[in-house]
Write a structure and sequence with these properties.
Layout lengths: L4 E5 L12 H14 L3 E4 L11 H15 L4 E5 L5 H13 L4 E4 L9 H14 L4 E5 L1 H4 L5 H7 L5 E6 L4 H10 L5 E4 L5 H6 L4 E3 L7 H12 L3 H19 L3 H8 L19 H13 L3
Parallel strand pairs: 1-2, 1-8, 2-3, 3-4, 4-5, 5-6, 6-7
């Protein structure tokens, strides 16, 4: 799979009764495919993977695969608390027809760099699928350090890193390292224009749930060197993206799906819904977009 273009970690819609809303999930995949996104990430952080039981996880993966197959790329999130669990998720994704995997270091256990490298080695050895490492220390408690990235990038099917550290200095160091046969992907939506300017051509965007067509257009503009258009598009989206990055990201991503005429329900515990004031303020930003 060519891990480039706009890749959207799709939200998991829920019904009013709290069940996975299969119809709404299919609608979102259709909307995103029609908008020109390059791929979908199922069971990522924005998809609340941690709040799904095993049957629901398979339902989400299967639904997305059936809706997207042959149209856009398929990536499965396989982050897990243990290495055997991540291997199990990787094999499940391969069976369901996924083309690549995305995996953060195991949350909660706080592995050292040696343990983290071994975790990725074992998962990579258990699957032929390309693996996107996911560096998001604010969520998992540890960072994939620069030297560990270099070491892991030598493994043939460890193909990329989603850089969500929040430090563009780190991102630029990785970009400038020009690691052979390895991609740096934008994982910080509010810094996307900076990543694109420095030659990154893959963006895994949670805000893509809200702006799939606009962000796909932004990627095309960067490909063609139309930097004024990149700046214009990013400037218009920025108030919404900044609000999402400031907190309650998943809640706002779900609310933003109303732009496509799709109701995705609320989030599951331990997350809590936006209060009326917060929802109204975010809706004001959405309504102001493009005016």
């Amino acid at each position: 799979m060519n891990i480039q273009g706009l890749l959207v970690p799709v939200v998991t819609p829920f019904t009013e009764e709290g069940k996975v809303n299969v119809a709404a999930l299919k609608q979102l995949v259709d909307k995103f495919a029609d908008a020109g996104v390059a791929g979908i990430v199922a069971c990522g952080t924005t998809g609340e993977y941690y709040a799904l039981d095993e049957a629901e996880r398979e339902l989400v993966l299967r639904t997305v695969a059936e809706a997207a197959r042959g149209r856009i790329g398929l990536i499965a999130g396989v982050t897990a608390l243990s290495t055997p669990a991540a291997i199990g998720y990787a094999r499940q994704a391969q069976t369901l027809g996924y083309e690549a995997l995305m995996m953060a270091p195991p949350p909660y256990s706080l592995p050292d760099q040696k343990g983290m490298v071994e975790h990725y080695r074992q998962v990579a050895a258990a699957t032929p699928l390309p693996i996107i490492m996911y560096d998001f220390p604010a969520r998992v408690g540890v960072q994939i350090e620069f030297e560990s990235v270099l070491e892991l990038a030598r493994i043939p099917n460890i193909a990329a890193i989603k850089e969500s550290s929040g430090s563009f200095n780190r991102a630029l160091a990785l970009i400038q390292a020009r690691i052979p046969d390895f991609q740096i992907l934008c994982g910080a939506d509010d810094m996307a224009a900076d990543f694109l300017f420095w030659g990154v051509r893959g963006w895994i965007s949670g805000a893509g749930n809200v702006f799939p067509a606009e962000q796909a257009r932004m990627m095309r503009a960067a490909d063609e060197g139309r930097w004024d258009e990149v700046r214009t598009l990013m400037s218009a989206m920025y108030p919404v993206i900044q609000s999402m990055e400031s907190g309650d990201f998943n809640q706002k991503a779900k609310l933003g799906c109303r732009r496509h005429g799709v109701e995705t329900g609320t989030v599951r515990p331990p997350l809590t819904p936006l209060c009326e004031t917060q929802a109204r303020e975010f809706q004001r930003l959405l309504d102001a977009y493009g005016k």
